[in-house]
Amino acid sequence: MLKILEIRQLTKHYGRIKAVNNLNMDVEKGEVFGILGPNGSGKTTTLSIIMGVIHHQSGSFSWFGNSSDGPGWKKSVGSLIEVPNFYPYLNLFNNLRIIAQIKEIPENDIDRVLKITNLYERRNYSYSTLSLGMKQRLAMASVLLGDPEVMVLDEPTNGLDPEGIAEVRTIIQGEAEKGKTVILASHILAEVEKVCTHVAVLKEGELLASGRVDELLGGDQAFMISASDEGRLEELLVRAGIAKTCDKKGDGLVITCDGSISASDLNKFAFENDIILSKLLSVKKSLESQFLELVK
Known about the structure:
Largest sheet: 6 strands, mixed
Strand order of the largest sheet: 6-7-8-3-9-10
CATH superfamily of the largest domain: P-loop containing nucleotide triphosphate hydrolases
CATH class of the largest domain: Alpha Beta
Number of strands: 14
Shape: elongated
CATH topology of the largest domain: Rossmann fold
Structural class: alpha/beta
CATH architecture of the largest domain: 3-Layer(aba) Sandwich
Number of helices: 10
Order of helices and strands: EEEHEEEHHHEHEHEEHEHEEHEH
């Protein structure tokens, strides 16, 4: 698989603050790669460095296998690190025409990106008339100008209502389905789980974990169970080594088991020990729960 972005030992300090510290990361073609982390974890700094907005102190990064100071890579990468400075008195088409001129992109691409972002019918409206969600979609349209191979997005849904978040998500998913590579930083973990194929978790500028989303959520399995004799069932599960942890929650128990244990295995074990289960539910592990375990 072609490596789109390769980061090696990337470091950026602000005095004693380690914004990015010896960071290593790879992004391959076609991935929707989410960068997660609490405030101050280095997400925006990392994206700003790889887009050439700020300089790093040591380490390196390369796009498409070429040196970061090599020619041409910026035309293949569209970025939204900060919201573009649109003119409130100009309509959507003319705002994008200015950006197209700066990027040396033909004007005939403007209608295409307005249609992708569902703003074509408003192309003659002034920017000042747009809702916050529409303004963010126009920012996404500016990223899509020139049909770049890669999109780099910093908190693309920040401040949006649920409808606006869903609209931006649809745009990202649509570009991913075309085989584009997307790199995004976000703190909305539920959205990252919906759109990303891979994630990296940062804390204080350092990489804690990275990999496929499904692999990161793998490992232990959790179940919610209820039974007539929960005390005895809990004792048996722990003694047999089936349950790693047991916690009383509401009218049942939440147990964590090795990923190889299935619901049918638990049901069979209980039945063989003369215990009838009245509830047996698989509890899906979320990216949020895994993230909180990593950064605590």
